[in-house]
């Protein structure tokens, strides 16, 4: 057993085997349940997800078949006190991110101060010169944010990653809760859990609050999807339906009379707010990739004229960069004047010679990630890699050190999953979802818990075999 595995924090059970306070009511309920009935419920949940179409596609797979994300019926439970502290830290970080992105496209004070190297902009393809000097309607860049958190101890939550571009997974958060309430309605009368069902209404209200001037009291909102073959298409359709918004593709839109308008049975109708799930590169073929058929020719001109809101704003991906992440403690302090409530994971920037030497000397013990990578791809988990894999990655590091950061192999906390042999601990992370508008910051209580379904695995990404579970914040 590795040191990280031996020292992991079990969120349900204390070292002496007693049940922690957050799980006591749930454990008392669980003790009264028939395991055979629970197994049947698990099968019913899988059938429900398949019938509903809650699937995803893994790009690059030879068969490219749609898959279910495994759902585990044991909730991940957080006390109200823990959540209040997390919420303060999340709000602080999201406000700093928005101020940081605004600064990067205006005076770049953080670079002038010497706290952030200018090379991080020059080397970052997500930084868009087309956004320089432009402020989105309402001054909001990051309308929807996902902050990935990991836990290593009783009061030790760390930020693993910031998702300021197009964070996904909120539909699974909502469907997981609906499924749990459908399977175990009596459980929710015994354990007081804060609801998450209001997210779609909050999302619609938050987006409407960011509409450009002149949009009127009821702005028209649409969700832009790349189409049915996108891995997150279910979520795009789900959110549009839940918000009462239109689901559109690029071919449904065009610029008419200086406005982005969508095709309807009665002709074209203007859109005020576009919640886009299309990457910057494909958003406007006249501005970015000329071969794109997913976006809308001319939309950036309309946007810069202040006649449509795009959420999230183009260029927000600059804050998703893992090299930028390593500077987040300085960024939070610079824009808020406060120390970060939620710390980063210790990070070595391989672009720095001393850090690179340390990483190369300790590859077998570290996790190394591409600065622009996502989804668990392009990374090395030293303790679970072979010598051959480590040496192959070493060559990549030496060739392009600026393309990587490294972090320690954390002793991630575990939550139990339901297996044929009973409860078994598995590593988890948490992605709370945050809405930002001129009216404030709204954080849904809980978020999406992703779980490594394989024993000992630290990789929770769905594309790498991870599953999900309902996240409960106790209403205490």
TrEMBL record:
Residues 75-452 form the Circularly permuted ATP-grasp type domain. It comes from the Bacteria. Pfam families: CP_ATPgrasp_2. InterPro entries: ATP-dep_Glu-Cys_Ligase-2, CP_ATPgrasp_2, UCP005522. Gene3D superfamilies: 3.30.1490.270, 3.40.50.11290. This is Circularly permuted type 2 ATP-grasp protein. It comes from Alteraurantiacibacter lauratis. The lineage of its organism: Bacteria, Pseudomonadati, Pseudomonadota, Alphaproteobacteria, Sphingomonadales.
């Amino acid at each position: 057993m590795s040191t990280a595995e031996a020292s992991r924090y079990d969120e349900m059970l204390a070292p002496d085997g007693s049940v922690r306070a957050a799980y006591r009511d749930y454990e008392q309920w669980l003790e009264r349940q028939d395991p055979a009935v629970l197994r049947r419920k698990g099968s019913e949940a899988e059938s429900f997800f398949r019938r509903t179409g809650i699937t995803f596609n893994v790009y690059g797979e030879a068969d490219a078949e749609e898959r279910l994300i495994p759902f585990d019926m044991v909730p991940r439970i957080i006390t109200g006190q823990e959540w209040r502290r997390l919420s303060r830290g999340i709000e602080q970080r999201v406000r700093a991110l928005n101020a940081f992105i605004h600064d990067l496209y205006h005076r770049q004070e953080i670079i002038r101060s010497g706290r952030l190297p200018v090379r991080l902009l020059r080397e970052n393809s997500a930084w868009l010169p087309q956004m320089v000097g432009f402020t989105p309607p309402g001054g909001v860049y990051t309308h929807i944010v996902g902050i990935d958190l990991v836990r290593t101890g009783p009061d030790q939550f760390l930020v693993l990653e910031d998702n300021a571009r197009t964070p996904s997974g909120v539909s699974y958060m909502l469907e997981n809760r609906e499924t749990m309430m459908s399977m175990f309605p009596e459980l929710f009368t015994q354990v007081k859990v804060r609801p998450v069902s209001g997210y779609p209404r909050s999302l619609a209200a938050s987006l409407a609050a960011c509409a450009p001037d002149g949009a009127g009291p009821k702005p028209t909102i649409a969700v832009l999807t790349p189409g049915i073959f996108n891995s997150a298409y279910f979520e795009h359709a789900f959110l549009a339906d839940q918000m009462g918004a239109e689901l559109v593709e690029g071919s449904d839109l065009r610029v008419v009379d200086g406005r982005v308008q969508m095709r309807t049975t009665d002709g074209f109708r203007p859109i005020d707010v576009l919640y886009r799930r299309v990457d910057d590169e494909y958003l406007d073929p006249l501005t970015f990739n000329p071969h794109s058929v997913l976006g809308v020719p001319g939309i950036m001109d309309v946007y810069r004229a202040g006649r449509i809101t795009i959420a999230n704003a183009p260029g927000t991906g600059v804050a998703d960069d893992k090299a930028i992440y390593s500077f987040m403690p300085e960024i939070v302090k610079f824009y808020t004047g406060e120390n970060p409530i939620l710390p980063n994971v210790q990070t070595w920037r391989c672009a720095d010679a001393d850090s690179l030497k340390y990483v190369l000397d300790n590859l077998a013990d570290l996790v190394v990630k591409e600065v622009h990578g996502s989804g668990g791809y392009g990374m090395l988990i030293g303790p679970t890699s072979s010598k051959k894999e480590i040496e192959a990655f070493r060559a990549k590091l030496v060739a392009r050190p600026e393309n990587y950061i490294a972090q320690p192999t954390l002793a991630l906390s575990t939550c139990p999953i339901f297996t044929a042999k009973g409860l078994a601990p598995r590593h988890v992370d948490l992605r709370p979802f945050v809405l930002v508008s001129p009216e404030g910051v709204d954080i849904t209580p809980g978020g999406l818990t992703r779980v490594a379904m394989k024993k000992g695995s630290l990789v929770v990404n769905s594309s790498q075999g991870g599953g999900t579970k309902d996240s409960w914040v106790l209403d205490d």
